[in-house]
Amino acid sequence: MSTVSAVINVDVKGPTISRHLYGHFAEHLGRCIYGGFYVGEDSDLPNAGGIRLDVVEALRALNIPNLRWPGGCFADEYHWMDGIGPKERRPVMVNTHWGNVEENNHFGTHEFMALCELLGAEPYISGNVGSGTVKEMSDWVEYLTRDGDSPMVRLRKANGRERPWKVPFWGLGNEAWGCGGNMTAQQYAAEARRFGTYCRDHGGNKLYRVAAGANSGDYAWTETLMKQLGELGCAYRPAAFMQAVSFHYYTIPGTWQDKGDATAFGTDDHYRTMVQAARVDELITGHANVMDCYDPGRNVGLVLDEWGTWWNVEPGTNPGFLYQQNTLRDALVASLHFDIFHRHADRLVMANIAQTVNVLQAMILTDPESKALVLTPTYHVFEMNKGHQDAASLRVDLLSGLPSREVGSDTLTTVSLSASRKDDTVLVSLSNLDADEAADVELDLRGGRAGEVGSRILTAGSLRTHNTPETPAAVAPRTHEQVTRTEAGLRVHLPAHSFVTVEARLA
Ligand code: AHR
């Protein structure tokens, strides 16, 4: 068993870990909205205006900071005016991208804003650049955020909403290099400038406009945006039409044709998955380095508004619905991402896991027949880590004993840590990615002494363990007893394949 030594200077506060790194994403895709968040007003399930209340209650426990909607690829074929007014008069459209299914538009702008209010989350709306017009997007912003009197304000009021909403985050399209219009970086940069210009700040509502960014490691895309959307060189000032640039990165250890099975996998598959997940560190660094050349003052934010595992769909389900199970392995992918996000808190301002309910690496799975709701292992990582939201990051210096595994031509470090401080409480997250070997971590807490200590652990008999309606708590957090106070700080035992959080009040 390895013993890892690490130092945390608890009195040297680093950049704040934005709560928005714990953001979410809900697309009109498969059963995320319909049959997930939204069951309709006539459902037997307790609901508020059709929004499923047990889903809301479970998610409220995560302190979801923001929710991205309506896509994804769907965003660039969504026409918001189809989703307002009396439901029986809303036109049906075809969701060509996801399963070619009919979309009745019953979940539209008002329903999304009501969902955000129920969740206590801030809305992040992705506008349609690919197949929409500048006027359509500009009108949507006016409809949502303007007060007083104007054509869009009148329309909103006629639809039952007197006061404007607050909409802090606005996406200028999605994946413009692919489903969002198959554009070149130059084409998109020009479009983003135009669309961004007419997304106005109305009254006190200040939009944080996010330009649709690169696919994984396409640094040239980021560079084109940074070059064209601002003034060149060191004198770069963030332009009014863009406050952030996004990128997307999914953990896919297989190929696009055969991504790998969500539950039937071996130890080698597990390590390959962890290597792919850890790659997000290199990608954030790469995009941030490009941004630093044009924006050394770090005024423009980097947003990872789609991340997570992407497996082959569950057998027997619609391939266009992206429904997948979620095991302890997915939980470790999430905990590893968060350690990396915390380390990049100076540039990474927002991240959104894909997607909240019933799609890809979800928090919640609902059974289409029994309607039972299951919390996934990934849900528990979000819940156990929520104390990091808006806390000051603390640097973790790993001194010795870091265990690793050779995975093909890569080396995977199998213990990962991050820490933060809020008032007098230090929260340390620790992941042991090793399938078989336990590890001990000796934490030297400098600049403070641990008083009262509490710890929780998420683990299971196997990395393949997952929750179902029959076994909803097969992977669930429990109290972790194997944490001891030492002269220097704390000793934490990490069983194989486990995620542990330690909360210490400074004495
Ligand atoms: O999250 C599923 C899809 O993945 C999104 O719609 C798209 O943006 C990405 O390719």
TrEMBL record:
The EC number(s) attached to this protein equal: 3.2.1.55
Look up the domain of life of the source. Bacteria
**GO BP:** L-arabinose metabolic process; polysaccharide catabolic process
Under the heading Gene3D superfamilies, the entry gives: Glycosidases, Golgi alpha-mannosidase II
Question: Which keywords does this Swiss-Prot/TrEMBL entry list?
Answer: Carbohydrate metabolism, Glycosidase, Hydrolase
User: What chemistry does it catalyse, as a reaction equation?
Assistant: Hydrolysis of terminal non-reducing alpha-L-arabinofuranoside residues in alpha-L-arabinosides
The residues covered by the Alpha-L-arabinofuranosidase C-terminal domain are: 305-498
Q: By its UniProt entry, which SUPFAM superfamilies does this protein fall under?
A: (Trans)glycosidases, Glycosyl hydrolase domain
Subunit-level organization:
Homohexamer; trimer of dimers.
The record's listing under PANTHER family reads: ALPHA-L-ARABINOFURANOSIDASE C-RELATED, INTRACELLULAR EXO-ALPHA-L-ARABINOFURANOSIDASE 2
Q: Please state what the protein is called.
A: non-reducing end alpha-L-arabinofuranosidase
Write down the species: Nonomuraea phyllanthi
